[in-house]
Design goal:
By secondary structure, this protein is an alpha/beta fold. The chain contains seven helices and eleven strands. The relative contact order is 0.17. InterPro entries: ChyE-like, Class_I_gatase-like, GATASE.
Length: 227
């Protein structure tokens, strides 16, 4: 099964030598799942020729906001809607979570409650799962037909399911603790309040359920669905 990874933002240049870009991180997260991967730098205007070029699509995180004026965002939203119409499964993470919601009729905005950084625990229908997060923007209104499947006190729509068409999460299962530490020092200082960063640093060693989320992504991609 071929998974196309749509890169919507670049990792900090200082961290790439150690961790690679976000495409590499998702390849690592989904390694061992018997997938093939193609990557497309949509943030730089590089798009697939067709939504049928892969058996499933994954949209990465980004430093950009989905409501910002970038030339590549409207065609990405068109791509999302076409993929959903053709029932080609799609997974979205952070920015991907938000752009899928926006493309399908939901609402995203900069959350007035501030930032979520580092270790966060979410309620998945009674099961507590932890992931690393890095966001201020949030989905604040669901798209028609969407269902919230995870939340916490800070993020009401932390994971969303769109039937068998799309599965999205706000947090970052692909982010290791070391990478979050790197983000704190390259993008966090002077942007995110110091107390939020210090709280994140204190919890860097807390375990996450990244592999559990990766398995959920893989199972979602492999679901049998009509075309």
């Amino acid at each position: 099964m071929k998974i196309g990874i749509l890169l919507t933002g670049h990792a900090p240049e200082e961290l790439k030598p150690h961790y690679g870009d976000y495409i590499a991180m998702f390849k690592s997260l989904l390694s061992g799942q018997d997938f093939e991967f193609d990557g497309y730098k949509v943030v730089d205007g590089e798009f697939p020729n067709s939504v049928t070029d892969a058996d499933g699509w994954l949209i990465t995180g980004s430093k950009h906001g989905v409501y910002e004026d970038h030339d590549w965002i409207p065609p990405l939203e068109d791509f999302i809607r076409e993929s959903v119409t053709m029932n080609i499964p799609m997974v979205g993470v952070c920015f991907g979570h938000q752009i899928i919601a926006q493309a399908l009729g939901g609402k995203v905005e900069k959350f007035d409650g501030g930032w979520a950084v580092g270790h966060q625990t979410y309620d998945f229908s009674g099961t507590k799962l932890a992931m690393n997060a890095w966001h201020q923007d949030q989905v604040v209104e669901l798209a028609p037909g969407a269902t919230t499947i995870a939340c916490n006190d800070f993020c009401q729509h932390a994971a969303i399911l769109y039937g068998d068409r799309a599965l999205t999460v706000q947090a970052h299962p692909e982010f290791s603790a070391d990478f979050v530490d790197g983000l704190i020092n390259t993008r966090g200082r002077g942007v995110v309040p110091d107390e939020v960063l210090e709280a994140a640093i204190d919890q860097l060693d807390e375990p996450t359920a990244s592999q559990t989320i990766a398995d959920q992504f893989a199972d979602f991609f492999r679901q049998e669905r009509p075309r």
